[in-house]
């Protein structure tokens, strides 16, 4: 299961001026530039952050003090250091600051709404001001994800459920309990992550070692993927929506095919050999549990996709 941890970065300030000088010299020679050093943004212990997908100078950070800061970052030139942010908007409309560690943030595709999940089980959505909030979950919220079209919002909680929210109506549509069938509110069934496959299909993973493919409007899973032997911490769909990657405390990652699931949610097998071809690729080699997995967003046509753990 994911645990909130403190991270720190050491910067050698003595070498900053010389690096800046070398960057400029490299630019004149036509050599690749060392990436510019961005400003250090002072806040409390920061757990999550996300850039606005439209206004890319806007950065949202969520911290242990139950505060979300929206930073307006001036963009640096290719060979200059970024300047510090002077414009900070602070969002503080949270229910319980003492238990309000912020665990997830996600922007909608238009960059107009920011969803926030927290350890006190409260979901909040902001426009800059509070758009709506809800206390439906009975356990910490670990993931919040808008659908690509912005119509829906998914949340995953340690109470074992995933909730589908109607964003415009500001209300719960369905609470999925596929991971709570064995023992409701058991710590072995907590829902750890959700990811959209399309605007009507999504997947959820759990400490119960299973992945469910779900469809908007249907309470039962379209398909269940199994094979991991310990908690599944994260799942990610490739950009084309044909593969689902997962990583687990069992020290492995798996890549499974999902292109046999139509956009309608119907599962289709052409013949037995096709069913066998759906066996996942198992990636091993780590000696500790895997907490994160991701796809390379772009790769040249005709080349294999890249996944990192």
From TrEMBL:
Kindly name one Pfam family recorded for this protein. WD40
Q: Where in the cell is it found?
A: Nucleus
Q: Where are the WD repeats?
A: 134-175, 225-255
Could you name the Gene Ontology cellular component terms for this entry? histone deacetylase complex
SMART domains of this UniProt entry? WD40 (SM00320)
Instruction: Output the PROSITE patterns linked to this UniProt entry.
Output: WD_REPEATS_1, WD_REPEATS_2, WD_REPEATS_REGION
Report the record's Gene Ontology biological process terms: regulation of transcription by RNA polymerase II
Which Gene Ontology molecular-function terms are recorded? transcription corepressor activity
Q: Spell out the InterPro entries in the cross-references.
A: Ebi-like, WD40/YVTN_repeat-like_dom_sf, WD40_repeat_CS, WD40_repeat_dom_sf, WD40_rpt
- Highest taxon, organism lineage: Eukaryota
Q: Which UniProt keywords apply?
A: Nucleus, Repeat, WD repeat
Tell me the PANTHER family matching this sequence. F-BOX-LIKE_WD REPEAT-CONTAINING PROTEIN EBI, WD40 REPEAT PROTEIN
Its protein name is F-box-like/WD repeat-containing protein TBL1Y
Q: Which organism is it from?
A: Mycena venus
Question: Which classification does the entry list for the species?
Answer: Eukaryota, Fungi, Dikarya, Basidiomycota, Agaricomycotina
